[in-house]
Amino acid sequence: MEKNEKKNCTKEDTSELTEKFVYAFNTESLDVFYCIISENNPSYNGYDEPGTVYNDAFYYNMRQLHQEKGDMEIGYYIHNGIVRTKIPYIKGYGWFDISADEKGKMCRVKSYPFDRKGINFVQSGEKIDMNIFEDFPVIISVGIIQKNKKERFALKAIFDNGEIKKYVISISEELEAVSYRRHVFSDGIWRSAVIENNPEPTESWYDGFKWCRPVVRFKNGYIISGMTIYYEGEVMPDEDSIHNDGHSG
Description:
Elements: H1 15-27, H2 30-36, E1 43-45, E2 53-54, H3 56-69, E3 73-79, E4 82-90, E5 94-100, E6 106-112, E7 120-126, E8 139-145, E9 153-159, E10 164-169, E11 178-180, E12 183-185, H4 187-190, E13 194-196, E14 215-217, E15 223-225, H5 226-232, E16 234-235
């Protein structure tokens, strides 16, 4: 079994992800990609390319596909008399099937030609609403919460709509310095969190992508999208303590 064919990448109803995926693809927005793509070996398999690519190469291939083939639209297909709607496709290329994990994040993307046997694909030309994130809350303040060993790396984030979220990176090691997603963290590095507006991606495989909204950046170069913090963070009351000045950078 290939590493992308794991049992937890089997969720079939991904209609709620389709618009977000198309938006992220068409705008090359890392903010949205990070909110919808699994951290655990996301994969892409193109019908016109050999093999399957994972992780960093997934993002690289998404941008290359957009640059070479153009924007996605939404269509539908008929198979054995059953209609399946909300299917992303690119004119002149093909359509895409996506799978999600138990958290509802995309873990696998496959492309197929329009003339795939048994499939009657209809290129309906449906566009997505490009304003779907226009009123999305923006992070305006960030602080550090260090209450216990289980939540050693926790943030308190305040958004412009007044909501407050707690976001925790789960790292169980109790060493002074620990590794997380190819970055080293210590208590001091975690306390360096600042808000930065629309920074340039630092990793080479993200070349050409863009952070469209404010992010939290640490002095080791690690970035957490404000959108990710809002989506995945836990609502917390205003009276919780904050351990730095929550300044912006």
